[in-house]
Model the fold of this input.
Amino acid sequence: MKRIINVAILFAMMIVVFSGCLKDKGFDNYEYGINDPDTQPPGVGFPKAANKKNTVGLDVSGSNQAVNDVVYVNLESGSPAAADVQVTIQIDNSLVTAYNTANGTNIQVLSSTLYSLPSLTLTIPAGQRNVQIPINVSSTLTLDPNSSYGVGIKIASVTGNFVVASNLKDLLIEFTIKNKYDGKYQLRGYHNRPGLSNPYDETVHMVTSGPASVYMYWPALGAAAHPLNGGVTYYGNFTSNFYFNPTTNQITAWDWTPYATTLPVSMGPATDSRYVPASGGNPAMIYANFYYNNNPGARGFFDTLTYIGPR
Done:
């Protein structure tokens, strides 16, 4: 298990480190990619191409839904553009096929009749570092909530004295229908490990990760993480991901996403972990008692999540 990180200490360290390291600051602020702008040729890339795939939950709707901040291109440069930079992108759904082959998944290619991009040419204006355009999904009424759908986009070319970053040129977007567990919740609970057991009371997002699963995102931290010890600490760069039986609403399994295969986990009693739909004026609730490292007596979370509204 990775060490526990103190939020206050982490932020203080970030201030010190980032003040002397443009590479880290720029990358974390989505200003450029993972190549050091001071030592590498200036280039362009999708920051979110660093993820194998980017999952977006969509509502069930016959109206257009604009998905922002995913088709997002940055300069990999320590300085803003001196002149307009034209970036040409194109749809490449071989990225969907390649991901399925590598990971044993069955993401379906989203029909081109259901989505559109405003343009395949993006302009990073002079004096700026980035540009983004929405991907518009016209309707989800024909999509199967038990399936997920993918769109692959790649950077084809760029003008001026820039290169296309090979590690940030391919963007895979996965669309799922937001499941009934998705939303904004008030998280209250505690961890049973001595020294870490101060109760927390934090607003979190439960984000669709599959047809009947959600993972925890902590807006105050700006990252996928589970609060700990009064909300001043959290575990490393992973978070809890819950799987539900959509018929009984019981939590049947959970893991640490995205490291499910490398971090041993052990479920607590399934009867204590469940989703309760809204009823009689009472909001929906999630009760999640879960353990890890096969040590329920000393390494467990006891969570109650109260639905606040859509995220």
